[in-house]
Design goal:
alpha/beta, Rossmann fold, eight-stranded mixed β-sheet, 8 helices, globular, binds NADP nicotinamide-adenine-dinucleotide phosphate, 3-oxoacyl-ACP reductase, oxidoreductase activity, NAD(P)-bd_dom_sf, oxidoreductase, SDR_fam
Amino acid sequence: MSTVLVTGATSGLGTWLARRLTADGHTVLVHGRDPAKVKALAADLNTDGFVADLASLADTRRLAGDVAARGRLDVLVNNAAVGFGRPGAPRQLSADGHELRWAVNYLAPVLLTRDLLPVLRASTPARVVNVGSLGQVSIDFDDLGMERGYDGITAYRRSKLALAAFTFDLAEELAGSGVTVTCIHPATFMDTAMVGEYGAAPLSTVDEGGVATLALVTGPEHAATNGEFFDGLSPTRAHPDAYDPGIRRRLRAATTL
Ligand SMILES: NC(=O)c1ccc[n+]([C@@H]2O[C@H](COP(=O)([O-])OP(=O)(O)OC[C@H]3O[C@@H](n4cnc5c(N)ncnc54)[C@H](OP(=O)(O)O)[C@@H]3O)[C@@H](O)[C@H]2O)c1
């Protein structure tokens, strides 16, 4: 049985995964930003809860330290994210002054993963599952903070392009190490809080996205799957930029943690 950290376990896909993994006999470390929600979920699942605002690099670093201090970690699921937001909502910044979706959906998972790599390496075979999206657009490196022409959908899609590119970088780094990393678009417009906030009609259930994500988290068929991008249960291609060595180099240089 595995020990699995699920970020953003207090809602939607994260809650689905936390409940299902617990029912399957795994130890789930649940993370959220709302102390009351984390406390209630951790009590319900009889497990450890971790509170951290992923819009703060310091908080993210502390979360990694707290989880690492527990010892074993077999799977890290980077699930927490900020969605499109309400249509027309203004640009928001993180505690560190980064554009909010860039901070929560990209910088935080990179930092959390990097800081947890020693414990993942010590727990091999281990996995990192990045919950991404098929919705990806090119990154404007001259305006990373999106000070010009901001909109929440583009901000979200840039962050998910970056997360996919990070997945492929890390997979190359980790090849042969016993730690694998994958990225998944769980399903399109699942019935969750972020989709409701944007006002879109749901097109799929959390169950559909949950089953697909669960396969990458614990499925024996994915024990060695590394550096692949999935649309639900099917391997697919991410945005071409995520494979481009020059763009990935620029992204690494722009990733200030
Ligand atoms: N829904 C879809 O159709 C869809 C499609 C493609 C990809 N995805 C991806 O699937 C993943 C799960 O999304 P979901 O649909 O389940 O969304 P959700 O129900 O809105 O859940 C998002 C989770 O992230 C947490 N979160 C947000 N901002 C945070 C912050 N600053 N610090 C810490 N935690 C934070 C939320 O905490 P609170 O509970 O406190 O709000 C919540 O637990 C995301 O990565 C999303 O991009 C979703």
